[in-house]
Amino acid sequence: MAALQINALFKKAAPAAPKAAPAKKGGLSNPFGKKAAVAPKKVAPAPKKGGLSNPFGKKAAPPAKKAAPPAKKPFGKKAPVKKVPAKMAPAKSSKKAGAELAKWYGNERKLYLPAGLLNLKDDVPSYLNGSLAGDYGFDPLKLGEEGKIDKYRIAEVIHARWAMLAIPGILIPEALGVPGGVWTETGKVFLEGNAGRPDFLQNPILFAIIQIGLFIGVEGYRSGKLDAPSGFVPFKGTFEGSDFAGLDPINPGGPLDFFNVAATPEDLALLKVKEIKNGRLAMIAMLGFFVQGAVTAEGPAANWGKHVANPFAYNFITITAVDRTPVL
After folding, report:
1. What is the pLDDT of residues 252-280, one digit of tens each?
2. Which residues make Cβ contacts (< 8 Å) with residue 320, sequence separation at least 6?
3. Reported pTM
4. Residue 124 three-state SS
5. Which pLDDT tens digit goes with each residue over 211-267?
6. In 124-280, at which residue ranges do the beta strands (DSSP E only) sit?
């Protein structure tokens, strides 16, 4: 009896499984049959008409075109902002150059004494008006009077350039131990033929002729007594003699400014100051070389080496001191 009841229960529960089968018709995405399947068919054509970028059809396209121009406007506005610093840069550099020039030129330039100890109107000659590079208002001997200041300026610059060439020309050969490198003995070594070179390279007469010929040519072109020739220079190519017309004979620039370091008048004015300051130091150094050579009969490199090795035993005082050893 119990077996019949259990069997009856299984028979009643069995039909429940087939009733769940209709759910398979609509799938998991449509568990409510055919009525729910109609909605996906109506929605599906919409993406195909407008595409992914325009899911609402043709009407949505115009707003997309109108939105595009605003995206380009920010880029158009930013471009002028980048140009503003480039235009302002020359103004800053010109102001800086003007402030630097005021230190060396004009009435506000530096003088050889502080402003409290020197009166520009009474103590400084009128011809030293700040128009020349390196003008500190110092001319106690009045050498520049009667219009001679320009000639003395040319002479000073030429001597300064020779001194700047002579300083390394004296130090380097002596330091390297080149025969005849000690400048106090160079002439003697060459005359005796002990320079270790072929005879024609240590012939003083030949070198004197070459040097005199070069000097005549250079000074003739500089002074304008000879017409400047055409030629070629590095980084600038060929040039004509007429390119030097109207240029300063002592600072011509132009074709001779190979590296274009004096691109503007302000740059040239500052370079003139640097040149004369270094040239004056070089002339003082040459005076020191002359005195050292006369006192020690040695070159400056040898004097410097001995002084560095024992500064208290080898200096100007110990060399020039008089021997006062008592003699019995």
Report:
1. 888 888 888 888 889 999 999 999 999 99
2. 295
3. 0.66
4. coil
5. 999 999 988 988 888 888 898 988 888 999 888 888 888 888 888 888 888 888 899
6. 231-233, 237-239
C-alpha pair distances (Å), 317 with each of 190, 242, 307 = 34, 57, 12
Compute the distance between CA of residue 90 and CA of residue 239 in angstroms, rounded to an integer: 30
Helix, coil or strand: residue 265: helix
Give the residue carrying structure tokens 């140009």.
Answer: 83
Give the sign of the dihedral formed by CA 238, CA 242, CA 247, CA 248: positive
* Beta-carbon contacts of residue 179 (< 8 Å; ≥ 6 apart): 189, 194, 195, 196
CA distance 193 to 187: 10
Residue 47, classed as helix, strand or coil, is helix
Block residue for tokens 């005195």: 291
Residue type (1 letter), 159: H
Q: Is 286 within 8 Å of 278 (Cβ atoms)?
A: no
Q: How does DSSP classify residue 225?
A: S
Residues recorded for the chain = 328
